[in-house]
Amino acid sequence: MSKGTKVPGYMQGKGSRNPRGIIGDREIRYKCSLQNTILDVLRGRPGWQEVPGQNNIQPNVNQANPKQAGQQSTGQQQANTGKSGSGSTTQGTTSGYKGSDGDWDFYWCDREWLAQNYDTMFLYEHQKILHFRNHYELTRKNLMVKNLKRLKKQTERELGKAEGQSFEFFPTTYELPSEYHIFVEEFKKNPGIIWIMKPAARAQGRGIFLFRRLKDITDWKKGEYQPLSDPNREVPETYVVQRYIENPYLIGGRKFDVRVYVLVVSYNPLKVWLYRSGFARFSNTRFSLDSIEDTYVHLTNVAIQKNAPDYDPDKGCKWSTQQLRKYLSAKHGVEAVKKAFKGIDNIIIKSLQSVQKIIINDKHCFEMYGYDVLFDSDLKPWLIEINASPSLTASGKEDYDLKFGLLNDLLNVLDLENRLTGKEKRVGGWDLLWEDGPILADDGNMECAPNGTTASIPNSFLGCHNERKRQLRELYTAAQSIKKS
Ligand code: ADP
C-alpha cells in the first residue's frame, strides 16, 4: 500500500468490510517477526497480505498524542490508554499515518520490538498488536509471585483468610538476592525439603538447579553475589528460589506439566479466553528424589528433554490435554478431574487479576499466554510459570496441527474480518472464560460434565472435545443470519 494515498481501513466504515479478510477497499496487511507456525497461519489466511520486511517499522512519535502509556510507572492504576484516542484524534493526526505504523493492520511482533517501539508508536483504531507493554509483570517469575502475593494479602484483608486460601496455588517463593534473609529463615524452619533455584527472566530450563542444603546455595551465592572489588561488575542476576513440588502426579512413573493457552483481549474489563487443547510434557526419565541434580528427571521442558540420551523424537514426550483428561477421568472419575481442572481456571483468573490494575491496558494489544501447570499427587494444580511467548515451533505433526488450529482460532476471536456478532462464547477451540465476571456455559454445551448435570457450569472446557472446524462452520452461518436480520 502506498502511504498517504489511501486512508486507514477503519476510516472507511465497518460496514464495508467483507468476510474475505478485506478492510474497506483493501486486504488485511500483517507483519510477523517469527518464522514458524504463526507465519504459516497468517500466510494461509484468505485475503491477508504480508507486509515485506520484518521488524523494520520506524517508530513514529506522534506529537499530537504523546504516549502517556510508556510514561506511567508500574503499579499505577491504568485506564485504557487508547493509544489512538477515540478515533477523532487519530484521524486528525495525518502525521501519524505518514509514519510507517500505518502500513499494517496486524502485527505478531516480538517482545523486544514492542519494548523498543511501543512508547513512541502511533496506532490506528483498527490495528492489533501482540503483547501488552508491560506483560513482564506476569511473565517474569519474580514479578508474577510478587503480584500474586500482593493480591492474596489484599484479599485476606478485605474478605478474610478463607478467601485468601484460593491463592494457594503457587509454591512458596522468594526473590534473590533481595529476599535472601527471609528465605534463610524459612529454609531453617523446614529442614530437609527440596528447593529449586530459577533465574527470573530466563526460559527453557536454563540456569535452573535443585538443592537441599544451604551450603549448596552459599557456594553458588559466592560466585554470583559476593561483592567484588571491580566497580564495573554487573548487577547480579535476579533469581527466584521456590519450594520444589516433591510429590508430582506421575504417569508411568514420569513427571509432567501441562501447557494451557490463554488469550487476553482486554484487561479493562478483563476478557479472557481459554483454549480447549494443549499438551502435557513428560520428563524422559522416571521420577525419583534420589538424583536431584538430574535435569532429565525434574525439568519437563522439551528443550531439556530432547537432549536426554534415550530421547525418542518420534515418540516425543507429549500427550494432548484431551488424552490427559481422559486418562485422569478413567482413573479418578469425572468429578475429581472436573475439580482439578476448575483449579486451573482459578489459577488463570487470579493470576490475571493480580496484574489487572498494573498492566497498561490498550485496546490494540492482546496476549496469548502459555501457562505451565503441574499437578501434585492429590491432583491439585500448581502454577509454575506464565509465558508471554509460548513456543510456536511444532515438534511433530500433531503438535503442528494443534498450534495451527490454536493460532487460526485466535485470529478468529480477534475477528479483524468482522464476521462475528461480538456475543460469542465459543470461537473454534477458544471458550470465553471471563468477561468482567465468570461466563457460564450454554445448556447445549455440557461436554465433560458429569452425567445428569443440570446446574450451570463454567464455560471452561480444557481437555474436552475440540471439533473446531465444525463449530466454526455453524458459528459463521449463525452469525451471518443474525447480522442480516
Ligand atoms: P523455565 O522458564 O526455564 O521453563 P520453569 O519455571 O517453567 O522455568 O521451570 C522449568 C521446569 O522445572 C518446569 O517445567 C517444571 O517441570 C520444573 N519446575 C519448576 N518449578 C518447579 C517447582 N516449584 N516444583 C517442581 N517442579 C518445578
Automatic annotation (TrEMBL):
Coiled-coil regions, chain positions: 138-165
Keywords: ATP-binding, Coiled coil, Ligase, Nucleotide-binding
Record GO biological process: microtubule cytoskeleton organization
InterPro entries: TTL/TTLL_fam (IPR004344)
Listed Polar residues bias regions: 52-66
Top-level lineage group: Eukaryota
Region called Disordered, residue ranges: 1-22, 50-96
Entry GO terms, CC: ciliary basal body
SUPFAM superfamilies per record: Glutathione synthetase ATP-binding domain-like
Gene Ontology molecular-function annotations: ATP binding; tubulin binding; tubulin-glutamic acid ligase activity
Low complexity biased stretches: 68-96
Protein family membership: Belongs to the tubulin--tyrosine ligase family.
Listed name of the protein: Tubulin--tyrosine ligase-like protein 9
Organism the protein comes from: Crassostrea virginica
